[in-house]
Specification:
It contains one helix and 41 strands. It has 575 residues and is mainly beta. 45% of the residues are buried.
Length: 575
């Protein structure tokens, strides 16, 4: 006769709630880096500290980075213009601009200069030439090299494009788009090459001006470039159009340029006016987003200039037909009657698009006598563009205080999806006088509001009206800690740099709130979830016996329990 045994198992998660809460709190509060727009953005520090933007007084006083660096005084004796700025994953800054100084024997034509800020040394490097005299080839570049744009990949390699009048590779002396890169592996800059002409064996097809190029890079390291061009490519005529080319890591080749502002998807030569000043961004899926200003009467927007938008979809492999985003949005027809120029685009972590530009339309009482900065956004959730709004005037109830022109905005987005915009402005704000100064505003996701503009090129930290010349062409970027970095060209004699234009730089440190305290210690004596086994083990000839209890901790997420019932063998009297 076999002994009947009953096993009753009761699982009691004593202390489990406290345990799981502590672990999830620990996970949720760790800081992580996310690759947003192919720049590392710090999301959240450990144990709940939040990144916040600094107050006005936390902008640094401007410093010169194109002259008087590391004790070399006033070597830069000519004008420095059109800076472009990028930050790598280590927080090092990289700046390029065009300069008329005869540096390293490059002559007095404009060349592209490069300098960097090292987090390790806390110093800016002395500038050097990257458009000429590279790797022993002396003064081959005899034309003007201007208007550079740069980007940096995950490994810290640097990619720069610019427009150049030099006859390189038989491209003739019309301006073309040149490209060079810095390799972290070799520690060297490459010799420049032409990417707007003579690509893949097609010689000198581009016989007109190629200008105002912008560059971006995706997560795979493929490079994307747009520019404005007068060449009659694909039957687009000789008005200015937006051209696009890319470099493929897989093939190690540049593509032949194509038109994206006209003749897309079978619609021929609908764009019969000027398309210029493109700006580009690439989302995390590799889709490409391009904006520019255009005088074509598209969708009834009239022949004043408007902001056009087009995108390339990796899913379809096609460019979209351009659409107007500065007018005729969501049923409001032709409200924008002014001139609209110089868009800048950025993409947030939700893949929503954010675009700013300068506009002379009298929107919300901002006056049509001056230009203002307008903003719009595209929501991936709704699939719609918002109606434009003014962000350089009439913010939070302060009406028409901005009476000067607001030009050339630049936009960036931090890890908390707050928006940051800089531009040049003639308004006498905070006693900065009526020369051009750099203004800054931000949109807070916490409040849902835009801030009132503030001056960052003058009157910072109590130093009043030291900047007496024009501050222009500002660019903004954000590092991994959430700090803001801005460069611009300035005619002020700062630090003995004389009154030629130089490149100035200012920084706004991110404030990280004090971290929340660590989670409390786990409860004792049972800090982990436990498994309680109640066993009822009858012996022969008995109805029941005293239950035995076995308590086992549950460890990790997978529990292996070997239950031994610890009974002495009993001989059965009857087999």
């Amino acid at each position: 006769m076999k002994i009947k045994r009953k096993l009753a198992i009761i699982i009691l998660f004593v202390g489990f709630l406290t345990f799981s809460f502590s672990i999830s709190s620990l996970i949720l509060n760790f800081g992580v880096f996310t690759h947003q727009n192919y720049k590392y953005i710090y999301k959240k520090p450990i144990f709940g500290g939040e990144i916040q933007t600094a107050n006005a007084q936390n902008w640094s006083h401007a410093q010169v980075i194109s002259d008087n660096v590391n004790g070399t005084l006033n070597w830069n004796s000519n004008n420095s213009y059109s800076p472009s700025l990028a930050v790598d994953s280590s927080g090092n800054l990289h700046a390029v601009w065009h300069d008329g100084t005869n540096l390293e024997g490059c002559g007095f034509d404009y060349d592209i200069f490069y300098a960097n800020y090292s987090v390790a040394t806390s110093l800016w490097s002395h500038a050097h030439v990257i458009s000429d005299n590279v790797n022993g080839t002396i003064n081959w570049n005899t034309g003007h090299s201007i208007n550079p744009s740069l980007t940096v990949d995950d490994s810290g390699n640097i990619y720069v494009i610019w427009e150049d009048e030099t006859n390189l590779e038989g491209c003739d002396t019309d301006s073309d788009i040149f490209y060079a890169n810095y390799s972290v592996t070799t520690g060297m800059w490459s010799h420049a090459q032409v990417i707007s002409d003579n690509v893949n064996g097609t010689a000198n097809w581009n016989n007109d001006t190629s200008e105002n190029a912008e560059i971006s890079i995706n997560g795979s390291g493929n490079i994307h470039v747009v520019w404005q061009d007068r060449t009659n490519l694909e039957g687009c005529d000789t008005d200015l159009d937006i051209f696009y080319a890319n470099y493929s890591v897989a093939t190690e080749l540049w593509s032949h340029a194509q038109v994206i502002s006209d003749n897309v998807n079978g619609t021929t030569n609908w764009n019969d006016y000027i398309s210029q000043n493109p700006n580009i961004a690439v989302d995390s899926y590799g889709n490409i987003h391009v904006v520019w200003d255009d005088k074509t009467n598209l969708e009834g927007c009239d022949t004043d200039s408007d902001i056009f938008y087009a995108n390339y979809s990796t899913a379809t492999g096609l460019w979209s037909h351009a659409q107007v985003i500065s007018d005729n949005v969501n049923g409001t027809i032709n409200w924008n009657t002014g001139h609209t120029y110089y868009p800048s685009i950025a993409i947030d972590g939700s893949e929503d698009l954010h675009v700013v530009w300068h506009d002379s339309t009298d929107l919300n009482g901002c006056s049509n006598a001056d230009y203002d900065i307008f903003y719009t956004t595209y929501s991936t959730a709704t699939g719609l563009w918002s109606q434009a709004q003014v962000i350089s005037d009439n913010v939070n109830g302060t009406t028409n205080w901005n009476t000067g022109n607001s030009f050339r905005p630049s936009i960036a987005i931090d890890g908390s999806e707050n928006l940051h915009v800089v531009w040049q402005d003639l308004t006498n704000l905070e006693g900065c006088a009526t020369d051009y100064d750099i203004f800054y505003t931000n949109y807070s996701t916490a409040t849902g509001l835009w801030s009132h503009a503030q001056v960052i090129s003058d009157n910072v930290n109590g130093t009043t009206n030291w900047n007496t010349e024009n501050s222009q062409n500002a660019k903004i970027t954000i590092d991994g800690s959430g700090s803001l970095h801005v460069t611009w060209q300035d005619g002020t004699n700062l630090e003995g740099c004389e009154i030629d234009f130089d490149i100035f730089y200012s920084k706004k440190e991110a404030i990280i709130s004090p971290p929340c305290p660590p989670p409390p210690p786990l409860p004792s004596p049972l800090p982990l979830p436990i498994l309680v086994l109640l066993t009822s083990l009858p012996v022969e000839g008995q109805i029941s016996s005293f239950p035995q209890i076995l308590v086992l901790p549950i460890i990790a997420s997978t529990v292996f329990i070997e239950a031994k019932f610890l009974l002495k063998k009993r001989k059965e009297s009857n087999t």
